[in-house]
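Appendix B, example 12.
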Amino acid sequence: MQRESGEGPEPGEPIIVQYFKYSGDLHWRHDMVLLGEDEHGIWLGGPAGTTIQRGREPAKQWPSPFVQLIAPARWWTLFFNGDYSDDYRIYVDVIAPAAWPTGTRVEMVDLDLDVVLRHDRSVQLLDEDEFLVHARDFAYPDWLVDRARATAAELMLAVEAGEEPFGVAGERWLRLVQ
């Protein structure tokens, strides 16, 4: 596994995914399971009913299966959604690169911008307004603003072109949680 400890859990073991905002505030938390690793990174699974929590709001169960890719040293994390009732087939969060403080917990800072692939195959950049507000209110340094924007622009092209891992790479992992 691509974690600093060099050792980690086996497939099927629980992993906590914790997002923060740049301000340090809690953002999203997902209770997932380790599926495995490939050339793209570490894949985590969330079957239907996976517990998710936004900030300090009450936890809830997500109704459909999904998988998440934690790609080492990347400024994004990728979700493949399994239920077509959700608006997005693919959802990519622009983040500061993920860190593994323990073998069973991964943390990242959400940088607001998101790139999505809808079920009609259209690609869209989301939350630009939130990004501008947080860049001002949380005092994002200029280099971070530039990096987040550049990452979002690269993601738009890669998702639209279906470049891996934004093509079909997540499908085999998604089958493990459906």
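The radius of gyration is 15 Å. The chain has a mean pLDDT of 93.
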